[in-house]
Design brief:
alpha/beta; Peroxisomal Thiolase, Chain A, domain 1; 2 domains; 5-stranded mixed sheet; 4-stranded mixed sheet; 9 helices; about 25% strand
């Protein structure tokens, strides 16, 4: 049964108020107010001097349990929100492997589920390790990106993507943070979800409007499916470690689930901002730091992403 052996995180110390980013990304005063009021985004973590390698390096350096076991890492997987994260011929993932003595590992990226690709990467890594049938083998999943264009730093009118990274050491079998169930719902009808631009005017497509309307229902359904697959009900779930989309969205999801909002770890939303694929893992570290997870607790990691369609995903773990 796939298990999280360890989780490392790196969030740059720099913070930039949303107002300071408005001009650079073409945000109006009204849009800034929307960011602050609805998702409650006050600032965004930024590392102006570092690149993608520095983000991933920080997360792996924070990873307990890797040192001395580098030779056991079979796979290094980069979970990506966007297919293109650096300019050719840069390859920060391979550079990362050389720095940490992981050059023997097979490296690849998954990005088919956009912001939900972090959960997909954990599932893929676990399946590969299970197929190898080596109980000592490990996989490393890293998540984190640097937005290099306006379209890769903003998603809809109420999300502003921040900078940070996470690293997860995965094994096929483990005694803690065991994966009990994974569910993902792929919705191709939302393929044309992006906003259209015409003479500098931005407006919703029909798919974008439909996605906004159905978002909470779809994400709640994915969570319920994962919980039911391991024979549980929502009352048995201690925490939800969310994709930090915005507080209002999670209020709606919780209403549909009948789940208390105060058991969704939203601590990092206002102080860091939403992170590319790494939110659930950063929120896991926050839950551990706050003492919110006890041995035997069942918790959910949940995320949604939109690109060529939409993906709504959830994993149930036992701590």
């Amino acid at each position: 049964m796939t298990a999280l052996e360890a989780v490392g995180v790196y969030v740059p110390s720099g913070r930039v108020p949303i107002e300071d980013l408005a001009e650079h990304f073409g945000l109006s005063t009204m849009q800034v107010q929307v960011f602050r009021r609805y998702p409650q985004l006050a600032q965004s973590s930024r590392d102006p001097d570092g690149g993608l390698l520095e983000l991933l390096r920080g997360a792996v350096a924070d990873l307990d349990g890797l040192r001395g076991r580098e030779d056991r890492v079979r796979y290094v997987v980069h979970a990506r929100t966007f297919p293109l994260v650096v300019q050719y011929p840069q390859n920060p993932l391979r550079e990362l492997c050389f720095e940490f003595g992981l050059d023997q590992a097979a490296t690849f990226a998954v990005g088919h589920h956009a912001s939900a690709s972090g959960l997909l990467a954990v599932d893929v890594a676990g399946r590969l390790l299970t197929a190898d049938a080596d109980p000592e083998a490990l996989a490393l999943v890293v998540a984190g990106e640097k937005g290099f264009a306006r379209q890769t730093r903003t998603a809809s009118e109420t999300r502003f993507l921040a900078e940070g990274a996470a690293a997860c050491l995965i094994r096929a079998e483990g005694t803690h943070d065991r994966l009990l169930a994974y569910a993902t719902d792929l919705r191709g009808e939302f393929e044309d979800y992006e906003y259209e631009y015409e003479h500098e005017y931005k407006h919703e497509t029909e798919a974008a409007a439909a996605l906004q309307q159905q978002y909470a229902d779809c994400l709640a359904a994915a969570i319920l499916t994962a919980v039911e697959r391991c024979g549980l009900e929502m009352g048995a779930i201690s925490l939800i470690l969310p994709h930090s989309v915005d507080r209002l969205a999670w209020q709606r999801v919780c209403r549909r689930l009948g789940f208390p909002l105060d058991r969704v770890v939203l601590d990092n939303l206002a102080s860091i901002g939403p992170l590319f694929c790494a939110d659930a893992f950063v929120n896991y570290r926050t839950a551990r730091t706050r003492g919110l997870l006890r041995p035997g607790d069942r918790y959910v990691m949940a995320a949604a992403g939109a690109g060529l369609g939409a993906a709504f995903s959830a994993m149930v773990f036992e701590h």
